[in-house]
Amino acid sequence: MLKAKVLLVGPRESGKSVLANFVSESTEGIGSYSPTQGVRILEYEKPNLNGNSKGAGCRFELWDCSGDQKFETCWPALMKDSHGVIIIFNPELPSHLKEIEMWYSCFVQQQPLLDSQCLLVAHHKPGSAGDTENLSLGKKMENSVSSSRAYPLNKIKLIHSNLEDDPEDVRMEFMKYFKSIITFIDESREREEMSIIS
What we know:
Layout: E1 2-9, H1 16-24, E2 39-46, E3 58-65, H2 75-79, E4 84-89, H3 94-109, E5 118-123, H4 137-144, E6 157-161, H5 167-197
Parallel strand pairs: 1-3, 1-4, 4-5, 5-6
Antiparallel strand pairs: 2-3
């Protein structure tokens, strides 16, 4: 069985644990808000995710990382051997819009991961306005970035998460992302095997 490690990172109280529980179908920690201390690892198996007839499936390790920067000294250890990063933020909080560039720099650029191995999730909490139509990273981000250069996050796929209104759409977007991670791992493995043969 293929194994993939995916980090869920982002500012505090952005909904990382809620989404990790939802995607992994875990009931752990459902209820009132409780900040993640360091990291919480959820294992999630998805048979036949890669559509391959062998039926090998995949075991995902979802590393739900604390948004508290007091754990920054642990980040290099968390990043080791990761295959993907999901950056989660609350689009209604201006501080989150400013912080996600730092999360991208630390967890994607420093590894280095390809932008295709990253997913940006605007998580709309229950009862929020959830304006998914008008949130454009370009406009809102330009206001929070002092530089006039192209914003690096514009290259990353952005999805909106509203578990009240469209939970199955959210699940489908995560499955597409996980499939792309599996494809990346398979292609990397094949390249490595070919380099050994030749």
